[in-house]
Amino acid sequence: MLERILFYGASKGRGVVASIDDSNNIGDVTVIPEGSFAKDWTAFTGLSGDRILFYSATRGGGVVAAIDDDNGIGDVTVIPNGSFAKDWTEVTALSVDRILFYGKSKGRGVVASIDDGNNIGDVTVIPEGSFAKDWTEIAPLSGDRILFYSATRGGGVVAAIDDDNNIGDVTLVPNGSMANDWTQITAVSGDRILFYGKSKGRGVVASIDDGNNIGDVTVIPEGSFAKDWTEVSALHPV
Predict the structure, then answer these.
(1) For range 62-72, the mean pLDDT
(2) pLDDT tens digits, residue range 125-154?
(3) For 151-176, what is each residue's pLDDT tens digit?
(4) What's the start-to-end Cα distance of the chain, in Å?
(5) Distance (Å, whole) CA 62 – CA 80
(6) In degrees, to the nearest 5, what angle opens at C-alpha 135 toward C-alphas 130 and 137?
(7) Partners of residue 219 on adjacent β-strands
(8) Whole-prediction pTM value?
(9) What share of the chain is helix, strand, coil (3-state, %, to 5)?
(10) Are 145 and 167 in contact (CB under 8 A)?
(11) 94, β-bridge pairs
């Protein structure tokens, strides 16, 4: 089964949509030309229905766009400037179209919902100090688990989030377990995580089991990716 991943480069407002198969091979690239995207998106995440939420910390606004089967961008819903706080550094989708917003400066967050009409609501506040302040990437896993990654430490945690948006059941991923140069991570099916490092254009795809153990690593060699991708997210058809 092929899945799609959107790579976005802020410096040129460009992107590509690539596929990944069950053996972790990357292929089927569709180029999205320079200038197709705004250049100030600081985070984005895939939603159900092959939608993407784009967020700008500069403006506190965003858009939700759909990506069709031919990798064309359309059906854009504008989320007005000022609708979001401006300190979110990571945004990731959870089950039932919930979205976790994380702000590293205060270790805080919110979980919001988004409906089929792209309306944001049902916000649960996660107070300052609830999270560590050095998470540089976050990705969702099955079972309402979340992988938090710190490039500073090369470590992380896997935490669970329940239906009431409470964070718990934390498993530590020891410092040094992961490389320090990953600049983006995104989850694909089968509890696999794609790690991307822009400095060398390299990556790995790793699996994570029900016990939160990392394994089954496929190396994607240096130079396989462009070096200007600033955001990466898998698409989610359902």
Answers:
(1) 96
(2) 999 999 999 999 999 999 899 999 999 999
(3) 999 999 999 999 899 999 899 999 99
(4) 14
(5) 7
(6) 125
(7) 204
(8) 0.96
(9) 5, 55, 45
(10) no
(11) 98
Given a contact cutoff of 8 angstroms between Cβ atoms, the answer to whether 108 and 128 are in contact is: yes
Residues 6+ apart with CB under 8 A from 120: 79, 83, 99, 112, 113, 114
Q: How many helices (H) and strands (E) does the chain have?
A: 0, 20
Beta pairing, strands 3-9 & 90-94: unpaired
Alpha-carbon distance 191 to 1, whole Å?
14
**C-alpha separations of 147 from 84, 102, 150, 208 in Å:** 23, 13, 10, 10
| The dihedral sign for the CA sequence 218, 221, 224, 225 | positive
Residue 74, judged by CB atoms within 10 A of its CB (0-12, 13-18, 19+), counts as exposed
